[in-house]
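Suppose you are handed a protein chain with no further information: no name, no annotation, nothing but its sequence. What can you learn? This example shows the usual starting point.
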Amino acid sequence: MLFTFDSRTPHAGRDTYVSETAQIIGDVTIGDNCYIGHGAILRGDYGRITIGAGTAVEEAVVIHAPPDESAEIGERVTVGHGAILHGKRIGRGAVIGMGAILSLRSEIGEGAIVGEGSVVTMKQVIPPRVVALGNPAKTVREVSANDAAFWERAKQLYIDLAKKYLDRGMQPVTGDRVRGTEW
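A reasonable first move is to predict its three-dimensional structure. Written in structure tokens, the prediction is:
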């Protein structure tokens, strides 16, 4: 659901899927061909959120910008399930693993990978094309060609999934039986 708040209205681009259980509030701009998953919360209530084309914001992600500041997420970024983002900038092609936390004003470089459950602390900067893990997140190696190829395929899967949701929609299951189980 998209909500206007304090005269700020969210906008979603062409061929972008926004789940009806997501909450997109206020000053949020989402590019073309994005996927915004079920239960995601994007709060542009007193800051601005911009999301580049081809980005996947998976289920239960929370994104929030500080007052009068911006949270900028580049093109073709993957934000894994349950991540919490209060960061300033995420570069093009980056990956934020499931359950990762990006604290206030942190920055993630282009093509970087922040591993699952990692914590990027306030104002911390993760350089481009590195893998960062832990709490606090530390660079452990450079992104390999295999990493880049894997994540490029994964990004396309979500672009295709967004299109499929838009084209086919979801149908509620009704009646007394669901997959052979009585309710």
